[in-house]
Amino acid sequence: MRLRFFAGDVEAGRGTFLPPQNNMCSFGLVEVGNPDNFFYAEVKVVFPEWWEERTESIHLITPAYLDAHGLEPLEAMRRSADWVRETVGDDVAVYCAMPTLFDYGHMDWYYRFTGVPTPFGKTLDGRDQYRILHGLPSHAKVKRHRVWREFPTSVPHIHHALSDSFEYEEVVRGMLHAQGML
C-alpha cells in the first residue's frame, strides 16, 4: 500500500477552539499532486452557542447561510469519507494540514460525532514535515511565512476552506517533492 496525501483546511465558527466548543462551518480536501480532484462541504451549525461574529467576519460564513445551504453533519462527513475512500482504494489516506491539531481535530471530532469512520489512516503536520526536511529538533518554532517562503504558492490565503486547501496543496506538494515522497 502506498500513501495518498490530501491537503485539508477547515473554517470554524469560533477561533482556535475545538469541538464540541466550536462548529466546523466548512472544509476542503484536495488530493496532493492531483488538484483537479477535490471535495468541499459547508456544514450546518451543531452548537449555536459556540459562534463568534469576529470569526464570521474573517470567513464570511453566517449561521443563517449554513442553515439554508449547509449539509447536515452526517451527510457532509459521509460524503467526504466516501470520496476519500473512492480516491485511495486500498492505499492509505494521509490528512495534511498546518496545523493538523486544528484542522484534523475538527474533522476527526465530526467523523466520531456522526459515527462515520475516518477515511484517514495518518496525518502529516506541515510544521513537523518542515522540521524533518531541515533536520530541526521537534521543539523548533516553525512559522508559516518561513514555510511559504521556501515552498511558495500561487493561491492567496483568503480563509475559504476550499481555496486554502488548494493553497496548502501546493505547499505540501513542494515539501513532499523535496523529501522524495511524491
Kindly describe this structure.
The chain is α/β, with parallel strands linked by helices. It has a single domain (3-178), classed as Ribonuclease H-like superfamily/Ribonuclease H (Nucleotidyltransferase, domain 5, 2-Layer Sandwich). It has seven helices and five strands; from the N terminus they run E-E-E-H-H-H-E-H-E-H-H-H. It has a five-stranded mixed sheet. A hairpin with a 6-residue loop joins strand 2 (24-31) and strand 3. Helix 3 (73-88) packs across helix 4 (100-114).
Question: Any key phrases for this structure?
Answer:
alpha/beta, 19% strand, Nucleotidyltransferase, domain 5, 43% helix
Task: Please summarize what this structure is.
By secondary structure, the protein is of the alpha/beta class.
Rg = 16 Å
As a percent range, the share of helical residues equals: 40-55%
The CATH homologous superfamily corresponds to Ribonuclease H-like superfamily/Ribonuclease H
Report the mean per-residue pLDDT as an integer.
96
Number of helical elements: 7
CATH architecture: 2-Layer Sandwich
Euclidean distance between termini CA atoms? 14 Å
Number of domains: 1
Shape: globular
| CATH domain topology | Nucleotidyltransferase, domain 5
Identify the CATH class: Alpha Beta
Helix-strand string: EEEHHHEHEHHH
Uncertain ranges: none
Largest sheet: 5 strands, mixed
- Name the beta content range: 15-25%
With strands numbered from the N-terminus, the spatial order across the biggest sheet is 3-2-1-4-5
